[in-house]
Design brief:
The protein has a single domain, classed as Aldolase class I (TIM Barrel). The protein is built from eleven helices and eight strands. The protein has helices spanning 17-29, 47-53, 80-85, 96-99, 105-117, 130-134, 138-150, 179-196, 199-204, 215-222, 241-245; strands at residues 6-10, 37-41, 59-63, 90-93, 121-126, 161-165, 207-209, 229-232. Strands 7-6-5-4-3-2-1-8 form an eight-stranded parallel β-sheet. The chain starts with 5 loop residues before the first strand and ends with a helix. It comes from Podospora anserina (strain S / ATCC MYA-4624 / DSM 980 / FGSC 10383). One of its GO terms (molecular function) is triose-phosphate isomerase activity. Its EC number is 5.3.1.1. Pathway: Carbohydrate biosynthesis; gluconeogenesis; Carbohydrate degradation; glycolysis; D-glyceraldehyde 3-phosphate from glycerone phosphate: step 1/1.
Length: 249
Amino acid sequence: MARKFFVGGNFKMNGTKESIKAIIKNLNEAQLDPSVEVVIAPSHLYLPIAVDAVTASTVSVSAQNVYAKPNGAHTGEVSVSQLKDLGLNWTITGHSERRAGGESDENVADKTKAAIDGGLSVIWCCGESLEEREAGNTVAVVEKQLAALAAKLSGDDWKKIVIAYEPIWAIGTGKVATTEQAQEVHAAIRKWLKAKVSDAVADETRILYGGSVTAKNSKDLAKQPDIDGFLVGGASLKPEFVDIINSNQ
């Protein structure tokens, strides 16, 4: 089946009230490919500003993270219901920067399941370190992360999942996996989904590439059969984000 191209913008811990408004104004006024689904993720502090500012019909707003438990005595956390109360329909889970801070595969899976049960769709991140790649363990690492996720999900839950493969060694480093390296891992993810979940989930699930994506390399990456879009970091803060969104034309 034809999978709808998807481009996410992870602003990370960047921005001010005015700069977030300016980025969104640029998106609202740009000629975006109408066949591409766009989701931007400012920090929690600026989510209400972003929700109010977005007018482009193909652009939605996401959180960068969410807590696995409902409202209660969890200082500093944000619940699924609070994100829904703001009007959000998306969250990111399992970004490598959070995994590096101590989030386990199981913790990420718990967050993902809680988000889906609460009505959110999820950009679920996976990926390997440079040491793991050099040891030839890339696919094994990603499959372990996938297995922890699959253990928590039912069949219908997968309809709310977008997978983002992000080689950790390529995030914010200026290094990027070659088109062949990226396609190889994306194909392995789809093969795992087919073997361990179902043919339908393997065919329908969108798999994004993330890791120093720019306007310069996005067109070649977009041509790969198992790359269904991008999760963009630093470049999502720049005008070239529009070019990345339109890279599948």
